[in-house]
Amino acid sequence: MTLPERKPPQKKRPRNTKEAASDRKPSGFAAMGLSAGMMSALAEAGYLDPTPIQAGLIPPAITGKDLMGQAQTGTGKTAAFAIPILERLEPYRKGRGIQAIVLVPTRELAVQVRDECIKLAFGSEARVMAVYGGKPIRQQVEELRRGSEFVVGTPGRVMDLMDRGVLPLCDIRFVVLDEADRMLDIGFRPDIEKILRKCPASRQTLLLSATIPPPVKKLAERYMREPEMLDFSSKNLAVETIEQFYFTIEPERKYDLLIKLLQREQPKQAIVFCRTRKGTERLYQKLSKLTRKAATIHGDLAQNVRDRVMARFREGKIRLLTATDVVGRGIDVSGISHIINYDIPEFCDDYVHRVGRTGRMGREGVAFTFVSPEEGNELTRIEMRINRLLKRDEIPGFTSYVKPQPTGDLSEEETEEAAPKPPVFGREPKRYRRAL
């Protein structure tokens, strides 16, 4: 009996890659129907997947709706409003004014938003510029006259340029109020309203804010067309990836505690927040004698100095930055590992935004707050605001630095300056230089 010849098993024909690809549903940015140019710009910028606010805000924004988005800083808000605007900008035509304007509360944020928009406009002909105080207005006037489709600016400088007749708003199609609560907090409401009244009623308005207090709601009701509210804020205002601690310390011992804390933590980069400009400068002058990696930023500095400090901080050349709340909002520096509230903030929301400088985009971070025995109520209000208790921290063996008694040859201040100080970041050279 002969057995039938066995045929070799048939190999399954591999599916055509085009067929397989057609079965897959697009996801992320690809599912939003963005142009090929924008997808290329996102790839060039390294944006792989949208953050929650980007996934939620971009699709309705592209349709032209007025939107209010509530989200903490560090969640990708800039790209969330920049992408739909850049997608809908019309090509430049001689004689046409600007099409999009973004209002922000601080000069530093204006620069940051402009740079982000330029990055997202990669490969297109869209021209983005920033206008803000502290810089010669003549340069900004000349740039506006050369033509621009997209302007980012602080309300005060925008008003100044409008009054000079070089920033007409008659062709505006998109208005963004970024960090709206902060702009109202620092008194920009009259300027914002004047600007909005000059814009065409047919414009699209996007309002982004970390909090939506009653003044922001009233502004939206008055100047937006049936805005849709999108809430991307977490239930707890404090970012979950940020560890938060406090020290109880007498005011005169805070500096010594700061030095001990820096020695213990060895932060990659840290911001030390103070309430006042003078206090910030005074603390910097002390720290600059201990490390060349310290710098300061506050409102008394010239704008070119502030720009230089922020550039060096972003590059990682500065590890320790003393600051007022001028950088409490909107500044995205990925390397910040520690926030130290040398002075407890006056307002609870300022605490939220200070701490939000670290732990950005899901990264880990840690925040410390110095609290004097008389400031217990302020700490309680912060904890109620963020719905979270701060952990008490202690440094074992911490003792106040005792100044030597001044002699007849030196003043008390000179004696303090002459006393040896410990290094801040591990081993430091014997002689110290200022960061600036």
Beta percentage is: 5-15%
Give the CATH class of the largest domain: Alpha Beta
Order of the strands making up the biggest sheet:
3-4-2-5-6-1-7
Q: Could you report the average pLDDT, rounded to the nearest whole number?
A: 83
As residue ranges, the low-confidence spans are 17-22, 399-419, 429-436
CATH homologous superfamily (4th level) name of the largest domain: P-loop containing nucleotide triphosphate hydrolases
Binned, the helix content reads 25-40%
Structure notes:
It is a single chain. This protein has helices at residues 17-23, 36-45, 52-62, 77-88, 107-120, 137-146, 155-163, 180-185, 189-198, 214-223, 254-265, 277-287, 303-314, 348-355, 376-386, 412-418; strands at residues 67-70, 100-103, 128-131, 150-153, 174-178, 204-209, 228-231, 242-248, 270-273, 294-297, 320-323, 338-341, 365-371, 391-392. With 436 residues, the protein is an alpha/beta fold. The chain folds into two domains: 34-231, Rossmann fold (3-Layer(aba) Sandwich), CATH 3.40.50.300; 242-418, 3-Layer(aba) Sandwich (Rossmann fold), CATH 3.40.50. The strands form two sheets. It has a seven-stranded parallel beta sheet with strand order 3-4-2-5-6-1-7, sandwiched between helices. Helix 6 links the parallel strand 3 (128-131) and strand 4 (150-153). The chain is globular. Residues 17-22, 399-419 and 429-436 have low confidence and may be disordered.
